[in-house]
Design goal:
Layout (H helix, E strand, L loop, with lengths): L7 E6 L9 H6 L8 E2 L2 E2 H10 L4 E8 L4 H13 L4 E5 L4 H9 L5 E6 L7 H11 L4 E7 H7 L8 E2 L4 E11 L20 H8 L1 H8 L5 H12 L3 E6 L11 H14 L15
Parallel strand pairs: 1-4, 1-6, 4-5, 7-10
Antiparallel strand pairs: 2-3, 6-9, 7-9, 8-9
Helix pairs in contact: 7-8
């Protein structure tokens, strides 16, 4: 139909490590972190509510470990009954392998997000989709100031560039199979940011020096990284700092619950959190 938005498929990462009990899941008495309730619904339900309402989402592929799929299946079935096209993809121990499997070799645009991204908004999703469709790959970010304007403890990890400090948001995009080239280095597994050799292979020593010394803006940094892989990679910068706050731990759960509660008209007080807490 003329004027319809260009479609994307969403890869929704919901797996957890086999044999590792997530602290939030244990506290809530559920088997999976994505089933942890927040503001009356499981984490994954809040994300699905946004996704199934977007006309540009043609399908959702939920990545889960095989032995956890039965527990999450009833929730997915509820959305299938509402007309959503949802497939379940077996996860791999390596997140990049999981994403590759979820693409099924199809050469088209994919938005990647997580089941704990409960503060995702329709506006944020559309901005990410539009950015992706004009490039080979995108990563969503917001500034330190935007996060702090929401809650000082909403995010603690920032990447400092020449123009600003940025926090990552769990909303990424790859536009076709060629875009997976940028992810190949991550296939080794392990802690990427703590492995200097892997970082150098991925970004190049000179690029790392430029970023470490804050000599490039985030846009220029992405351009340099894209050139290394022969891709047009772009940052998608959100003005809304809430989009960098996902449910990683008890601290961010409390903050996300307060923000989500505000959106839903619940009377949840703003949390006071000790900066020294985990």
């Amino acid at each position: 139909m003329a004027g319809s938005p260009a479609p994307v498929t969403v890869i929704l990462l919901a797996a957890q490590r086999t044999g590792v009990v997530n602290p939030l899941a244990e506290r809530a008495g559920v088997s999976h972190k994505c089933l942890v309730p927040i503001c009356g619904k499981p984490l994954i339900s809040h994300v699905l509510d946004v996704l199934i309402a977007r006309p540009a989402v043609d399908a959702i592929r939920v990545v889960l470990e095989p032995d956890g799929q039965a527990a999450v299946s009833p929730i997915l079935n509820e959305y299938r009954q509402r007309g959503a096209t949802i497939d379940t993809i077996d996860s791999d121990t390596n997140i990049v392998e999981s994403v590759i499997a979820a693409t099924k070799g199809e050469d088209k645009p994919f938005i990647i997000t997580t089941a704990d991204n409960v503060l995702l908004t329709p506006e944020g999703f559309e901005q990410a989709r539009e950015t992706l469709l004009s490039c080979d790959g995108m990563i969503s970010l917001t500034t330190r100031e935007a996060v702090w304007s929401v809650h000082r403890q909403g995010q603690r990890g920032f990447y400092d560039f020449k123009d600003a400090g940025y926090a990552s948001c769990n909303l990424f995009g790859i536009n076709g199979q060629k875009s997976l080239r940028a992810a190949e280095v991550f296939r080794e597994g392990g802690q990427f940011m703590s492995n200097k050799g892997r970082m150098i292979r991925a970004f190049g020593l000179f690029n790392i020096i430029l970023m470490a010394l804050k000599l490039v803006t985030v846009e220029r940094g992405m351009q340099r990284l894209g050139k290394r892989f022969g891709l047009d990679l772009r940052p998608n910068i959100f003005a809304n700092g809430e989009l960098a706050i996902d449910v990683d731990n008890a601290r961010t759960y409390t903050i996300a619950e307060w923000i989500l509660g505000q959106r839903l008209g619940m009377d949840i007080p703003k949390p006071v959190i000790d900066p020294a807490s985990g």
